[in-house]
Automatic annotation (TrEMBL):
<keyword id="KW-0812">Transmembrane</keyword>
<keyword id="KW-0472">Membrane</keyword>
<keyword id="KW-1133">Transmembrane helix</keyword>
<feature type="transmembrane region" description="Helical">
    <location>
        <begin position="177"/>
        <end position="197"/>
    </location>
</feature>
<protein>
    <recommendedName>
        <fullName>Gram-positive cocci surface proteins LPxTG domain-containing protein</fullName>
    </recommendedName>
</protein>
């Protein structure tokens, strides 16, 4: 009975931690692809009129078959819908990107991509911006394709929602945010720390 209660408490703590740690950010869950040696998630995103999305947009990648090394990795983006929204290459992605149009970006990575268990978040990302003429409530989609040598291309769709100018949608900051974030992280650590015994790593090799 004692072990059962401990497992229940661990699950509650982990769930509460995830909700608190992720509930403050603008990114939301999107499509997830689980098939083959690499899995990918394609998060949704919000962009304010006349501004830039808080986070860059990019796929989250992880290995489902143990350590994996990939070369000639590429990520392509194609935006449709949501008039006034555009895509531009991210500055910190570490890849080489070209933008044939405001609706398309193609990025390639000259490095060897090595998975050792850790999820790579926002891989070769793009920046999403919206003109002042963009209408709050409009929704667009970004078709994202990840490919690499010897790997079947993985395609998913992220949703882009246009919101107000950002003042009513600003993330919580200050002591309240720090307290909530700290509580969430403590709960997450308590729930997950008891079942995770290995450190996950992902590496790039030039």
């Amino acid at each position: 009975m004692r072990h059962r209660c401990a497992r229940l408490l661990t699950g509650v703590l982990a769930t509460a931690g995830v909700l608190l740690a992720t509930g403050l950010g603008p990114a939301r869950a999107g499509a997830v692809h689980r098939d083959g040696p690499i899995s990918a998630a394609f998060p949704d995103i919000e962009v304010p009129t006349g501004g830039t999305a808080v986070d860059p947009l990019g796929p989250n990648l992880w290995s489902t078959a143990g350590p994996v090394k990939l070369t000639e990795a590429k990520v392509s983006y194609h935006l449709s819908g949501a008039a006034g929204v555009r895509l531009t290459p991210g500055e910190d992605g570490g890849g080489e990107c070209v933008a044939p149009s405001p609706n398309r970006v193609v990025c390639s990575d000259p490095r060897e991509l090595s998975f050792e268990g850790e999820t790579i978040e926002q891989y070769l990302p793009v920046v999403v911006t919206a003109a002042k003429s963009a209408k709050p409530g409009d929704t667009g989609t970004v078709t994202i394709t990840f490919s690499a040598k010897g790997l079947t291309p993985i395609t998913g769709v992220s949703k882009v929602d246009v919101i107000g100018d950002g003042r009513e949608n600003l993330p919580i900051t200050g002591p309240t945010a720090a307290s909530l974030g700290g509580i969430g992280l403590l709960l997450l650590g308590a729930g997950v720390g008891s079942v995770l015994a290995t450190r996950r790593r992902a590496r790039f090799h030039s």
